[in-house]
Amino acid sequence: MTAPAVLVIGSCLILGSLGKPSFPEQEKDPKFWNTWAQQTLKNALSLQTLNQNKAKNLIFFLGDGMGVPTVTAARILKGQLSGQSGEETQLEMDKFPFVSLAKTYNTNAQVADSAGTATAFLCGVKANEGTVGVSAAAVRSQCNTTKGNEVTSILKWAKDAGKSVGLVTTTRVNHATPSASYAHSVDRDWLSDSAMPAEAVQDGCKDIARQLFENIPDINVIMGGGRKYMFPKNQVDVEYPDTAKYSGTRKDGRNLVGEWTEKMEDKNGHYVWNKKQLLSLNPNNVDYLLGLFEPEDMTYDLERNPETDPSLTEMVEVAIKILKKNPNGFYLLVEGGRIDHGHHEGKAKQALYEAVEMDRAISRAGLMTSIHDTLTIVTADHSHVFNFGGYTHRGNTIFGLAPAVSDVDQKPFTAILYGNGPGYKLVNGGRENVSAIDYREYIYVSGEENNYQAQAAVPLSMETHGGEDVAVFAKGPMAHLLHGVHEQNYIPHVMAYASCIGQNRQHCAGHNQGSRLRPALPSIAALFTLIRLLF
């Protein structure tokens, strides 16, 4: 086996001597499957009584790049991490009673980017790739097409309705997904003023970091990475003072964190930049929280320092404790943003562990809220050209080899493959041999190889997004409205309808939190009938 090889013989997974898969003995009995199916049927029948309560709280989990193959692979990994074969495991999102599909294309792109999709699922309007918080009338990188084309998000609708609001991400807080909550930018890459063309600044366009604090100034909870975009150029970072690339980037000399801290001094506002500071806070005494834990994106969960960096689950728990104090309820956006980054880099292990961590955060949020008054949605902005196959046996480690070599080049191959990306490698004019002493009795021990790049069919420096529909999981009030196949921009309209914010509020008159909503559509139909009779 060569030094770079990451496929190593191990003993964590044992296949039979003839390569036959092992599985629980009870699965041989038809009664096992029939009983399971009958219980599932009873659960499904209970859904005939729909939850039509008014949603006091809204929680939106966004797995960036978490296409259906990623969901399935993460499910298997979750099970294998707890000593199971994995396939039969349930993710928290698997337990949600309603599932639909969302079409992810941007107005100008068949295969979408995260900015245009974020505008769709947060602002309710499809948009061009690379733009956030503006309609499709805006043209990427053309500052003068911003004004008049701004669209607002469900975060703002919730804030205007008196709810507490927050956003939590494992990327930069001014990255594509979170920025669509508050910014109106014709270029997702205008992270600070130093990233903008001089003419755009002169024409009055604002960088995204600045908009975070100015457009909706009273966002209650902001947590993620992105410190360097908030501080003056060359100001050293508090955590990495000797690393120049992490120093401040702002050419305007503004200290946005300092300005925020001063403004929130008498409003129970707190700024934190490490886990110790975050967990030392008493949420009962915090009304506003700004947590910036890295200069850029937060580290992958596999590489996270558990002493200094909070996990996504820990951030979500603190966020909900702060937000739920509001008697009017809250809205919270949670992004597992580095699932996407792992895939782009061809690092399936990083991506899947990020997805498993987001599943933990979904579980924690579920324990802290109630389906009676909280609508929770889990979805993705887009997919990736990631998949796994090769007729692997039951319980095959998700990072392992297919059970047979290629019948063309007689070399083994990993079950996980990418359609394109940095994992494409040629050795002596042929496909790289990923190496295993005996491909029928191997284990992919990836203990130290978190960054192994799975093989790809087409060479690219960065793997690309996929264009297929993504799953939308929903539970809580009005979750049944997410069914079938819909445009991605439909999602925030459902959330707004369920919580009586934004448009379509006529069905909410006289209803308190938790009370049943009466659809307004029948009255509209009656109106049209009357018009036809009169004319």
UniProtKB/TrEMBL annotation:
Cofactor: Zn(2+); Mg(2+)
Textual note on the cofactor: Binds 2 Zn(2+) ions.
GO molecular function: alkaline phosphatase activity; metal ion binding
EC number: 3.1.3.1
InterPro entries registered for this protein in UniProt: Alkaline_phosphatase (IPR001952), Alkaline_phosphatase_AS (IPR018299), Alkaline_phosphatase_core_sf (IPR017850)
Chief place of localization: membrane
Signal peptide start-end: 1-19
Active site (record annotation): S114 (phosphoserine intermediate)
Catalyzed reactions: a phosphate monoester + H2O = an alcohol + phosphate
Keyword Coiled coil: no
Residues engaged in binding Mg(2+): D64, H175, T177, E335, H344
Keyword Glycoprotein assigned: yes
Residues where Zn(2+) binds: D64, D340, D381, H382, H465
Gene Ontology cellular-component terms listed: plasma membrane; side of membrane
Keywords, comma-separated and alphabetical: Cell membrane, Glycoprotein, GPI-anchor, Hydrolase, Lipoprotein, Magnesium, Membrane, Metal-binding, Signal, Zinc
Superkingdom assignment: Eukaryota
Membrane topology reported for the UniProt record: Lipid-anchor; GPI-anchor
Record localization: Cell membrane
PANTHER family reported for this sequence: ALKALINE PHOSPHATASE
UniProt record similarity statement: Belongs to the alkaline phosphatase family.
Self-association and partners: Homodimer.
Name used for this protein in its record: Alkaline phosphatase
Source species: Takifugu flavidus (sansaifugu)
